[in-house]
């Protein structure tokens, strides 16, 4: 019942709140170890979130973990997705816009903080899943509820860019969309965030 009403019962990334305004927050996130997969969403026949299944299999969320130990790895939220096209996301997700590659999506799971180096995480059995380390980063963040459709996300991104520019922050990358709840959470109780990296 809790997940339907928006309860987030998995580990989420810790961050330092640098600044809070009525419009947005500036947050600093520590380094993290990430499992990621880059794929062409057209290869998944209508399921543009096919990377989710590859990563879920790696951590053992859907059965036996597909990694070298084999070790079940706790699910965390949000999931991160870098995309060069607008995609409808399911599950707890963060969407980062493109890296220049056309029609590809890079979906990432932030691994639990017990993994401090990439080599500490179990090696994926599927070569499409790669383990990487991401350094400390700073973001401007807007939090909102509801279903994060393309129109709503575009509006949130445009407003956040405007506010960051107004307040003198330098944007250093594309936006990310964070989704913290599974698809069956009732829309008014969903937690979403638009995040834009800043200096």
From TrEMBL:
It comes from the Eukaryota. Belongs to the HEBP family. This is Soul heme-binding family protein. The lineage of its organism: Eukaryota, Viridiplantae, Streptophyta, Embryophyta, Tracheophyta.
